[in-house]
Model the fold of this input.
Amino acid sequence: VVALRVLSFLRVSPAALGALARRPLIVLLASGWLMLLLPAAFAIAFTAIGLNRTMPDLYFIFILQSCSPALMSAPAMAALMGLDVALTLACMLGSMAVVPLVAGVGTHLFLGRAMIEPLSLGLKLFVLIAGSAAGAAIIRRLIGGRRIEANYEFLDGLSVVTMFIFAMAAMDGVTDYALAQPAFVAGLTAFVFALS
Done:
């Protein structure tokens, strides 16, 4: 996770982030869409269809997921697809900034109790972001901004390798579960793709 954050900060020039900071409206709107409108819409929809009664475990997971910030790998994926990496990183940082409050309120409203301690989570996210930014700043200082910009493709490759390693760890046990309940996993996969 830290490696992905450091690579994301390296992939974006400080000037690009500075430009977004001077015109923050698009970042605020995108972060609000990601962390306010979408979580509320999904949570209300899941509750309205009765998922909390028919499949409470799945409902629990969906509520937690809807309150989550943008993926840590989002800037790396944006780079691979040729999208605006600086904007993606800024939106990811914006969503991480408000996730302690959103997750605390969202889980309290839809699960009956707050599943996280906002202050504790906020402190951990701050340490993660600040530490990653500091690490990237040190690397940029040692190597030089021009050399980093000349090797963006190499950084993208490192991001892919890092994501692959992270995905392997996160997918532990998924294969066995998919083999045990293939129909359920296939249906759930289709449902998630439809939501995306």
